[in-house]
Amino acid sequence: MTFDYAPAPESRAVVDIAPHYGLFINGKFVEPRSGNYFKTINPASEEVLSEVSEAGQADVDAAVSAARKAFGKVWGPMEGRDRAKYLFRIARIIQERSRELAVLESLDNGKPIRESRDVDVPLAAAHFFYHAGWADKLAFAGFGDNPQSLGVAAQVIPWNFPLLMLAWKIAPALACGNTVVLKPAETTPLTALAFADICQQADLPPGVVNILTGAGETGRMLVEHPDVDKVAFTGSTEVGKAIQRAVAGTGKKLTLELGGKAANIIFDDAPIDEAIEGIVNGIYFNQGHVCCAGSRLLVQESIQADVLAALKRRLGTLRLGDPLDKNTDIGAINSRDQLTKIEELTESGEAEGAQRWSPACAIPEKGFWFPPTVFTNVTQAHRIAREEIFGPVLSVLTFRTPDEAVEKANNTPFGLSAGIWTEKGSRILWMANRVKAGVVWANTFNRFDPTSPFGGYKESGFGREGGIQGLGAYLAVEDPS
Fold first, then answer.
1. pTM of the model
2. Nearest CA among 110, 102, 103, 105 for reference residue 42
């Protein structure tokens, strides 16, 4: 039975987008010394949302200098309990402005408002709450009696979870006594600029947090700046490798969270209805714009037909459309460039002999859209099974034995995440010890908590974010794990 839903749009009136934004340096919004600007658009409608500044070398120098001064004179010497007060204040303001931030995120990113409202913004606040609690307890975290902050942290975040990735980066850095220069993705700068306003509202000392908008060249200048002590990057493996080459030999501490091609493994004793929801959440959440997305479905051969039939029925109920509609399940692809990449890779899947299926789905005339897609008859040689698509595209492979499942799951250069679906706890532990992934979910997928570390192996990067392990990335000690 299919239900018809009346439109239930969230109001844009809660958001006041300025026609123009400067850079946030030393506690103030300033015009870029580069004199350059770019547009940020709504990917669901191609509407121009605002004009945003592009930071050049002089702007990067000014931001790093402000962060260095704040670290040496204010934030570094400050007692942990006092730093915690600022983080708690920021967390509360995020909660107070949650509706505004959720709408802004969906407008700038294209993700459904339900996800912005129920996942991104609450988790962002939770990260600040969690790390605020650690700010005066670092001596009890296993890093020695007197763990020391690093200094100035350069942080570059992607466009798939703009506000949440900002929280993942800034909260632990500040809790550990570091100051920050952060560059958001050029296609999704608005929530980072709203966070700059939150820093002002929280009376955060000038220079503790600096926000530089711009594209890849701005990020390169920030990462390579000689007065930066720590680099944290989330994004593509290709860019991550370039960053690692750039910081080699400099003494800068580095954390990389890169691409993934996660296996979602369904055994024949798994609860099928629950597994179907896990498959949908694993690859179609946020339009598949998730590094740890379960983009490879490994299903035991004996239940393949049942799983595919149930999955197709479920995909037929997903609603694609206006990201601000509370009924929407699949929003817009973040940019035309990303849509082109998804289209190119899916065309290669068909050209290589895989069978493509999508539910009946009306595509809006404007904006960047791609329907939820399933590929069957996929082999491990197909590009769609090897390369990260970063879109709502699932490749289905089969296995007969647990050993074969492990072999196929690990047959990838990535190692960020995996999912295991079975009623046998012993099998879950057996698989988890053999699957080479930084995060292994059991009978669930895409579950996150600030108390739990997240990160990858192999070409998915190194270092951890979240939990006690994530604190170690911002302290001048070795990670105890």
1. 0.96
2. 110
